[in-house]
Structures are given as C-alpha cells and as structure tokens.
Amino acid sequence: MTLTFKLRLTLTFALALSAGLSQAAGFQRLNLPMDQNGPALQGAVWYPCAEPAGETKIGRAVIAAVPDCRMPGGRYPLIVMSHGSAGSYLSHHDTAAALADAGFVVAAINHVGDNAQDRSRQGYLSIFSTRPREMRRLIDYMTGAWPGKSQLDPDKVGFFGFSRGGYTGLVLAGAVPDFQTGLATCQDAPTLPMCRDIAAGKVPKQPYPQDARIKAAVIADPLNAFPGEALKHVAIPIQLWASEQGGDGVSPASVDAVRQGLGVAPDYLVARGSAHFAFLTPCSPEQTEAQPVICKDEPGFDRAAFHRDLNARAAVYFKAQLQ
C-alpha cells in the first residue's frame, strides 16, 4: 500500500484537527538510575501540555516542546520509542511531539553503547539483547516510578521503533531472532565484530521474552533478523513502514519479508522516494551541516511533508488501537 494523495489529505486534516483541539507538547528530561537490570539510562518524556506551543533547543536540534509544562488532568496511553543504531532519544522528536499533542505520553531513551554519544558497542551482538531489556526497564520506570505515573494507563502501552529500534519492538512483540541465518547485514559488512562472532558460531543463547504490556506498535524500516517462522508469534497490531530505497543494512525486500512473516497482517505503508534515514526527524541547518549523510534526502523527496503524514498516520493508528 502506498500513500495516495487522498490518504495524505485525510491524514493532514486529522493532524490539523488534533492540533486544534490541544496546544503543545510538554517536555522533561528522563534519568533512570542504575539497578540490578542494567546501567543508568538517559532520555526524555513528551506529554500533553496546557500551554501555547513553543520551541526548545537541545544541542543542534530544535524541538517543538515546552519544558516542564503542566500536564492537564486525565489518564493517557504510553508510547515508548527505540532509536536506530547510533541515534538518540531525540531521533524522532517531531513524532514524539505530535503524539503528545494527540494525547499520548511518549518516552524515549538512549540505548547504552549504541547511541550518538557512545558507540562503544555499536557493532556487537550484545546490543541485540540489551536493547529489548532497556525498553522493558523504560516501561517499568514510567508505570512504576515516574512522578507522573498516576496519569498513565498501564493497560494502554504502544511502541515506536526505527531500524534497530524496529527490531527491538518486534522482539518485544514476540519475534525470536536467529542471527546465525537471519542477519543479512553481515553479507555487506562481514568484518563487524558481531558478524565475525556469528561466522564463528559464537551466538549467545539469550532469552527474548515478549512484553505483553505492549498492545500495538508502529515499526519503521526494521532491521530484519527473523528468518523462516521467527515472526509468526507476533500477534499485536502493527503499522509497518518501509522506505522505497532502504539503507544502513535494511532493504525494501527485507522489510517486505517482515510483512510476510508476521502472524497478523500489518497496516503496510511504503514511503515513495524515501531512503532509510527519511524516518529521522527533519534536520535543523546545524544538523544538516554536521551530518549530511542522515539529513539529506534524494532529489524530489520532501522529508518535512512526509513527516506530517507519518506523524498523523501514527497518531491515528495508535488512537484506534489504544484509545
């Protein structure tokens, strides 16, 4: 399925309507303390806000949010976000703000050793087991220790993930990865530490427990490590996005293989003219100058317009599944 003009018009209207009914996204930094399950985690929370919209600059990024804004009364569904390799909790800040404006609390963290500030474990197999555990810890914290937990509905938890974050969401939804036969990225980069370990048969037997608290997911260009029937036990509703050109170890064929392998047929959308990094928030001029590889798109592709559609579609989907 592709985004037609009619669908884009419908979704743009839906986003405009939701923006007209609310005002802004609130924003708070998030710090999960070290515990027996892992090291400290840093991130942020976006949430419905009772103040006029504003902007905040964090490093090179300009985010549409009001720091420490008062959250209106009520109970809200929770969306947790998992970024791609070497990304950060800000990788999808426009989507987080749009979801907050639509009535969700959104939490994102930096994955330890695989983020923009710390890439010490980026090429290692351990990342694939620690990522799901870190997201479980994030849900635990938000529903059990976050100061605003009384305004969360713990029975309404959603997941947004991109690239390796998409892999992470599929694991938490019940998929069982098989690195020995299923990680196609090693065909292109066999010298990565994880690929050398896989070739040598040094694949740890790690449990990958499903997190039943997650009731729906939006997955964008996931890294596919799920051959055969590895995805058949995924039964939650999934909106699956694919870029038309792929990149960074993800191909259109590998995403389509995820679509075909899922136990329940997803809401499948292909972003025409896009490459892999188009799912990242549109870059500021400073970010574009510093990181042109992830910020610049193919000629004729409008990332800002695409994100208006992506964000609207994600909000509509989560509302249908969680509210």
Structure description:
- This protein has 323 residues and is an alpha/beta fold.
- The protein has 11 helices and 11 strands.
- It has helices at 5-21, 93-101, 127-144, 164-172, 179-182, 185-188, 193-199, 252-261, 285-290, 292-295, 303-322; strands spanning 24-32, 41-49, 56-58, 61-63, 66-67, 76-82, 105-109, 152-162, 214-220, 238-243, 267-271.
- The strands form 2 sheets. A 9-stranded mixed beta sheet has the order 5-1-2-7-6-8-9-10-11, with helices on both faces. Strands 3-4 form a two-stranded antiparallel sheet.
- β10 (238-243), α8 and β11 (267-271) form a beta-alpha-beta unit.
- α1 (5-21) packs across α11, α2 packs across α11 and α3 packs across α4.
- The longest helix has 20 residues, at 303-322.
- The chain is globular.
